[in-house]
Amino acid sequence: MKQISDTQAPVPDDRDLLDLERFLPYRLSVLSNRISTAIARVYEQRFGLSIPEWRLIAVLGRFGPLSANGVAERTYMDKVRVSRAVQRLLQRGLIERAMDGADRRRSILQLSAEGRTIRAEVAPLALDIERGLLTALSRTDRAELDRLLGLLDAGAGQLMPVDEASAKSS
Amino acid sequence: MKQISDTQAPVPDDRDLLDLERFLPYRLSVLSNRISTAIARVYEQRFGLSIPEWRLIAVLGRFGPLSANGVAERTYMDKVRVSRAVQRLLQRGLIERAMDGADRRRSILQLSAEGRTIRAEVAPLALDIERGLLTALSRTDRAELDRLLGLLDAGAGQLMPVDEASAKSS
DNA sequence: GATATATAGTTTCAGATGAAACTTTTGGCC
DNA sequence: GGCCAAAAGTTTCATCTGAAACTATATATC
């Protein structure tokens, strides 16, 4: 004889049916896209820079000279993006490329004088934007946020190892 | 006679030259992309759903029936994305579309029976992923995070009004 | 009730994207 | 030295994306 209820497919109650607005990945995605879009617009209009291009400048300014791969690792961009950003910035003369004498597959990238100038102009603007975002947060709030983002990074690491995410070196 | 130092272009010191790794918009972007990519992979492999498609299902399940515009408003997706997601889900029979009798420009979208089934399967998976992300956070940490994201949303609102960001209705 | 303006949704087009293939060079390994 | 696997970057190709143009309908103004 057929059993009742226990073996039936469970009828999901509302607890199992997620509410998009409270779903953390969704909230992060909407927030981050909103911010990135606004920033991209500013960089584009004022400096003709895309976000990948700006990241390249920022990271070369801070850690350069670097190989393309070094850039990819530090920016979480894949090598195709880096390659394209490098090409455009070379054309514009904002970076310089040399070949590594010891390993001729590898390039050596660094900011040109003009690139350094651009970085010095863009960076304060970026910091202004960040300040605007954070106006409503107290000093301790900011420290909290920093800590919590760190924890989320760790959680995301479980989900998807960093090197599989994007910063592929091959 | 030319003045010295005071009128010269300021030489930016390191304080003005941002460090990408500490720059909030960058951190949010990397974190969010990492999570979204991982989730997109799961949805795609297990259910053949893109993220826009899943968002449509989630929001229709929770608030449906809705017009395409209603969906756009609640998901922060632009109307082109919504339109495309609608088409694919109609093809797959996961949603149904009727015309609004009172306003024949407007469509009325809702989940089909099969759509409801899919939602009931995907939602717990999504919640599992979220739980994974949050394992390292205590109950109070989670409340803090919620609050801080709310503040950031407000800050982002200053940067870029919601309706200009993406959920354009026209 | 004709004309103008706005809205819902779709289509078009030009650019962005990333996985996979490819080229070149390097580093074993025999 | 010769051969094979791996790494650095680039190119290709198929897909995704969103701004702008477009279609159809509705609303406002006269």
Structural notes for this entry:
The structure is a homodimer of 170-residue chains. Chain A is mainly alpha-helical and 170 residues long. Chain A contains 7 helices and 2 strands. Chain A has a two-stranded antiparallel sheet. In chain A, β1 and β2 form a beta hairpin. In chain A, α2 packs across α5 and α3 crosses α4. Chain A is globular, with a radius of gyration of 22 Å. Chain A starts with 23 loop residues before the first helix and ends in a 5-residue tail after the last helix. The relative contact order of chain A is 0.10. At the A-B interface, α1, α2, α5 and α6 of A face α1, α2, α5 and α6 of B. The structure holds a DNA duplex (30 and 30 nucleotides).
Layout of strands and helices, then pairs:
The structure is a homodimer of 170-residue chains.
Chain A: H1 24-47, H2 51-63, H3 68-75, H4 79-91, E1 95-99, E2 107-111, H5 113-134, H6 139-159, H7 162-165
Antiparallel strand pairs in A: 1-2
Helix pairs in contact in A: 2-5, 3-4
The first copy, chain A, binds a DNA duplex (30 and 30 nucleotides) through residues 50, 67-69, 78-84, 86-87, 103-107, 166, 169-170.
Number of strands of chain A: 2
Low-confidence stretches of chain A: 163-170
Q: Helices and strands of chain A: which structural class?
A: mainly alpha
Shape of chain A: globular
The average pLDDT of chain A is: 85
Major sheet of chain A: order of its strands?
Answer: 1-2
The amount of beta strand of chain A, in percent, is 5-15%
Rg measurement of chain A, Å: 22 Å
Name the chain pair with the biggest interface and residue counts per chain. Answer: A-B, 63 and 63 residues
Structure annotation, total helices of chain A:
7
Percentage of residues assigned to helices of chain A: 55-70%
What is the succession of H and E elements of chain A? HHHHEEHHH
Q: Give the termini distance of chain A in whole angstroms.
A: 60 Å
Largest sheet of chain A: 2 strands, antiparallel
Based on the structure, what is the oligomeric state of the protein chains? homodimer
